[in-house]
Design goal:
Blueprint lengths: L1 H5 L7 H20 L5 H12 L10 H20 L8 H4 E2 L4 E2 L2 H9 L4 H5 L20 H13 L11 H14 L1
Antiparallel strand pairs: 1-2
Length: 179
């Protein structure tokens, strides 16, 4: 209930997050797969878990699959509803530098092959995702999805070398054929 009340309204101080982790770890993990809890709360809970346990060893397979669906949804929503979850491109990836971003990008990489089918559904999504550092590139959701899939599958995909969306589209079409 505390997470439901506070989770979306304010940033929780580190001491509160540490206390939740120490005393309610099991409940936090269960929130991720609880059906009637807002997905944004689930993502914020995972944020708490990520910074206290940097790998996926605390999750069972169904929780990992739920996280895969959540992060793919969050990536898509970061374009269509920017205030829904962390919208900044830097949180996901620095495609123009061919580097991972912050926590959401790292969590996607940890989810590995489990998230690839979810990301593959985004490979045709042309919604433009504005970013200050990469505004010349006109990055779209499909660019981010392709970036992560290529990294997970270890397929060379030099999106960062191409400013124009047309050339990146050619690379993404080639990636689709390899999946």
């Amino acid at each position: 209930d505390f997470i439901k009340e506070k989770g979306l309204k304010q940033h929780l101080p580190s001491k509160v997050k540490d206390s939740l982790w120490s005393h309610h770890r099991t409940e936090l993990i269960e929130i991720i797969t609880t059906p009637n809890i807002d997905d944004r709360i689930k993502l914020r809970v995972d944020w708490i878990l990520f910074y206290r346990q940097h790998d996926l060893s605390i999750f069972n397979l169904s929780t990992k699959k739920a996280l895969a669906r959540l992060y793919a949804k969050a990536l898509r929503k970061s374009c269509y509803a920017p205030d829904w979850f962390y919208y900044s491109n830097a949180f996901w990836a620095y495609i123009t530098f061919n580097e991972l971003g912050r926590m959401p990008g790292h969590r996607i990489m940890q989810l590995g092959d489990l998230i690839v089918p979810e990301l593959a559904l985004l490979l045709d999504d042309n919604c433009f995702k504005f970013g200050r550092r990469d505004r010349r590139y006109y990055l779209r959701i499909k660019d981010f999805a392709a970036f992560f899939i290529a990294r997970i599958k270890k397929i060379p995909l030099p999106l960062h070398k191409h400013i124009t969306p047309q050339k990146r589209d050619e690379l993404i079409e080639d990636l689709k054929k390899k999946l």
